Fold each of these.
Amino acid sequence: MLVGVCDFPGSYAFPPAGYGGIERWLWAVAVGARAAGADVHLLGPGWLTDLENDWVRKPVRLEDIPSGSLAERDIRNTKYELLIVGHEYPSLPAWTRTWDALDCDVATFQHSPVFQHNPTAFDGRRSRLYCYSPEMIERYADHRPIPELAVHLGLDEEELPATAGRDLIWLGRIDEDKAPHLAARAAQILGRRIQIVGPVFDETYVRRHERLLTANHVKWAGELGGPAKTAAIAEASVFVYTYARPYVEAGAAVFGESLRAGTPMAALTWRKGTCAEAALCEQTGAMIVADPDEDDETAAQRLALAIEQAETLDHRQVQEIGRHRFDPARHFLAMASRSC
């Protein structure tokens, strides 16, 4: 199978070294496709140029190709069987005009809980949309979504054999939506140290919770990538997952990152059908569903109980399950099949 993985015109490099959503997912699919035996072309100018030694790079985007041009003829004659793209592309007229001239499928994953697609963007067969959780499936029901757990990879983030760690870890973008202050408070309740990893997206949020986020038991690591990021997760005893009450998580990378590293998760959620529920099981983590009307203190106390429960799990079993559940080759093969 010949697969084209299309870059996305964002601000992160492909593959990203640390933070990134669509970018990390596209790289995981490219790696997974190759591992599954497919021939892979990296389409678009965003891919790092030093990949040319190991990958076929074609720095062209479909939306920039003029109709009837030699470039359109060339990409048509390449005979791609599947294009993997960011979720906006199938709703972009300039992109779909070129894709319509190709005899190939397109598959994408929904990384945003709010993006509105063209009503005819997906038919569930030739053009397929994949969603992480029951809640995301429901939000995009008009587009015939297919359930699938997203796999994300960064540059040089291979996991080592699992070990039982010591402190807690929270990882993500630091803002109101992700609510790391709840993780910090849960750690404080337990008398545990917690490392906060990620870029600050909202200074106002940090100042509002400054007393808690800068307490002695909290260590700020900043944004980590590559081996440093993988090591930080692997050396933790529990990965603590939080988000704000109204926020809808489209498909967080951290579930796969933590489980593949062998670190069990303690997840705070506010309703049924979330990504945490889709990703975790009794062997890999502990999840609590808090009442949104409860205050932060009550929610943090519930999260503290989940941390204690998660800490009893076997790290080696967590990694074994995580490597299967979030395997890039398995993920690609699921997306490559016309399952509807």
Note: The first strand starts at residue 2 and ends at 6.
Amino acid sequence: MRVPVVVQDVPAPSPAPCRPSPPVTTTIVAVRTALPAHRYAQDDLTEAIGDLCLAPGADRALLRRLHASAGVRTRHLALPIERYAGLSDFGRSNDAWMAAGLALGEEALTAALGDAGIEPADIDLLVCTSITGIAAPSLDARLAGRLGLRPDVKRVPVFGLGCVAGAAGLARVHDYLRGHPGGTAVLLSVELCSLTLQRHDDSAANLVAGALFGDGVAALIAQAGSAAASAGAGPSVIATRSHLYPDTEHLLGWDIGADGFRVVIDAGVPDIVRGHFGTHVRAFLAEHGLAVDDIGAWVCHPGGPAVLSAVADSLGLPGDALEVSRHSLATAGNMSSASVLHILETIHACRRPEPGTWGLVAAMGPGFCSELVLIRW
């Protein structure tokens, strides 16, 4: 006789609760700026730049007004001012960019590595940005051997972001480190703006550039996860946001021709900033439960006095909120993408916020675009 088999439903064991891994933290462990040795007072550059850009006997009233109102007291130049007359074509200017960029890049990165207590062979990613010259092999490839980087170091040379690249470069470094716990990444900004000045060009844009821009190189080192714990003195990156403004490509950038990079600076840039920048910043902060008043350290690219005023107006900032940005502009000029790193270095070294302080790295550039990086000490 066959015995019936009784099958009972046995409940499946409950799955173990899924516990998401904690987010990988990106910590800025060092920032260092290298400025060329050739430092000039703004007043001493005005007539020399007039000699380069204006025809003999031309009226210099506009030139002098621009220099006086640029918010710049001193600037560093890649070459002694008397050598700029000999940069007769783009090739010579680019050769000067490469020579000075390599020397200053090595200086800045070596200093940052020393501050962080990191060996060159520990670098996993090198992002190198510049809008003021071009090279193939790129600067990062040429620096790798000089600095002792590993042969398998990942390299990302970036051209075209301009002034926004300091903030955008930090954001992309953060993106990489989120996927590489324990990794070490470097952002190197090489901006020798004076070498792009167009001789015999009396356009308003060229005269503005000649009054505003300075030269500088900056290196930022960031680490992810436990790798940052031993070094971890700097702020952590919390979130980033990119934004392109429609139909604004004509506002800022280069016209590239036989003479090299001819600057495009539209007078409408401050109006775009004043009308839209504050809205985007507030929306970004709100996503993280923050408001403008919660930001204790503003690391804002100093595009110029009018742009800084537009930023302050759009956000309703108190008069001293952008003081470090104005100081960077006054002492070094607008150094394109290196400026926000110079400002971050100054804040961390001289005005280090209390632990828990929120900061915002903000910059704008060709596109027209903006980049925001939320940080916290």
Note: The chain has a mean pLDDT of 91.
Amino acid sequence: MNLQSKLAILADAAKYDASCASSGAAPRNSVGGRGMGSTEGMGICHSYAPDGRCISLLKILLTNFCQYDCLYCVNRVTSNVPRARFTVDEVVQLTLDFYRRNCIEGLFLSSGIIQSPDYTMEQVVEVARVLREEHDFRGYIHLKTIPDASPELMERAGRYADRLSINIELPTAEGLKALAPEKDSAAIDRSMARMAVHIGESRAARKEQAAQAIVSMPQSRTTRRASVPHFAPGGQSTQMIVGADATSDSTILATSARLYGAHQLRRVYYSAFSPIPDAARALPLAAPPTVREHRLYQADWLMRFYGFTHDEIVPSAQTGMLSLDMDPKLAWALAHRERFPVNLNTAPRELLLRVPGFGVQTVERLLAARRVRRLRHADLARLHVPLKKVLPFVEAADYRPGRALDAKDLAAQLAPPPVQRSLF
């Protein structure tokens, strides 16, 4: 099989992996003619395919051969799909060639499991090592790691990659046992914990070294110690499949909250289940609405940036499921109308963040502005917030919402109908 045919198969096989993060890299560049590529530490440039998929990273599998039989996976051992496998050198050359043509800004590499987890992980790590050490590649590298691989290989992966990810696959251990019995949820959790320790130790060591450097700045340059190496400076992420089993949104968000708290994950990605050829009877016949995936991402942001806890986002009256008709922040506000209207001039930051239509940056601007003067209705218009959504929930120096919050059709007024879109 020629390289182009392999690329067609293995790039298509990688499209189901949503955890293709690109932020948090250590700043690097090739100024002065050394090496190839650069990162700015704040993410990378993005381009988009006609169907909307981001293709800023060369996103491929090392191979779609796999010895596991996960029922939801198109690459499972019993799946009747074309198979291909790259060599280490082929992935390296593809990455460098695409980078030279300005088609990509980095590499996202995952793989099916062949021979053993250690053998596969060793091949994945070798790609990153060759790029870094033999070609001085300074672009972005994201490696999907294998939970059952040895801790030594996982540690090596962190030396070369900007970000690592370990897929939790499904939100519950029971779901994983039912649909992917060869995978061990406890092993996945242990691997995440080890990774979190390595990342934390690296950051603490670099922080300590930076502090010592400031104290010893007047000393001779000859006394400088070698810099503490980065270890996955972009942190770790994970992905879970939504809709492959009957797990509720409240359980999904509880799992995400646990992962954020226990392992300091940078992101949890939600991937709506997509029906696959020759699917097992245990799987649903149709994909869940993609708007459900969108609502989970909105709820995830409420937990990460807006001070919400997972158990208050999904109302108990909705049997553990997020509303598909409106975003979770608006749903919470409508269910807690007694907390509104919020006074823009006196309310604390925590309550302003709960106003529908206010983002974190908007709240920071409001707090800065009210230090020097009282906020008025016109100030909201200048901030370009969605006034129709905001005004029923706030009051300003020259504005009161009256009985707008008591309107029985307020939800219908504020929540536009959801739009169903295709995944691919």
Note: The longest strand covers residues 236-242.
Amino acid sequence: MMLKLKIKLLILFLVYVATAKAQTSSYKFKRNITGVNTIWHKMVLPDDLYKKANAGFDDLRIFGVNGKDTIEVPYLLKQRADQVTSHDVAFKQLNQSTHPGGYYYTFQSTEINVINQINLTFKQQNFDWKVNLEGSNDNKSWFNILSDYRILSIKNNDTDYQFTKLSFPDSKYQYFRIAVKSPVQPDLLEAKISKTDTIKGTYQDVKYQSFTLKNDVSSKETIIDVVLTNPVPLSYLKLNAQSDFNFYRALKIEYATDSFKTDKGIQYNFANLYEGTISSLEKPEFNFENTIASRLKITIQNNDNKPLRLNGLVLKGNVYEIIARFDDPKGEYALYYGNEKAAAPVYEIEKFESKIPASLSSVNIGPELKNPAYTIKTEKPLFENKAWLWVLMAVIIALLGWFSFKMLRN
């Protein structure tokens, strides 16, 4: 009786092990998760995971073991980027007047609103003006908000640049007055007044391994190659650019997608991250979609101008964070990845994100381990097996013998 019980337990254990391995056997790597003590937790993906996981993170899975049960943990993968919201505030233009100090435009709202941005659109395409901005609640007493704020528009064969957005701290007035200091009458087409709010995301500094700068005289470009230590998320770049004069140059930021060997060494294919302008009027800071990258190429078009003085840069990226639901906190859990054929999982918690607690405690993701359950199924050619070759040879000999016998009999 005791022997039969032991046999049954052994069979159940083997079935359990086989089932657990079947769920995880297609993933090359695993990382143990520690610190699970409640249902909801968050965890930040470690930097050295990105080079092994699929580009879209479709292969990320969390499996847990508790006794004889193997559990797949549902999760949400969040990208902690800035959340920017902007809404227009209704203002009507009261009047337009001229004064020796400039050209004035006054705007009124039916109620007192908080604003922090005004986008101006002019008919003129080339100008360089200074602007003052004031606020008032009675249209009599005015309070200064911006002084000598420079706006600029340049359009020619080489450049198409415009900087006409007034940005300032939150201001709450019923009236706003813009004074444009210009030698000619500005033709104001539109003033779009708005309130923009930014919820800051979670960033981490990214260190680069090398920074190589080349001023190409023939193409009139400055090209910067930046090599990172590992593939990591990038969404922010700041260039330490200096010049003795005001400047505005076309700028392009690209990242390497893959590489190939040539007679001249290893070459790279690049894809665009950002295209815009680096200017002395704006901070040389550029935000773009969070992208996993290991190599950057930054191109600045100098045209016939002296190259800028560039002495380094600052890189940042938004962290990727997993929010997971551990239905059984007592289990032993691990994060699995490294399956090129995996499809993105579909979990119901995506539809009920508002029900997830706002405050979550973090758990730890351990170092990378090779998954011992990982197996590779390789389909061998049919005739690689010697048994098949012997069978094939026997069939051929039998057929030849049969045909030979038939011919001799005839």
Note: Confidence is low (pLDDT under 50) at residues 1-20.
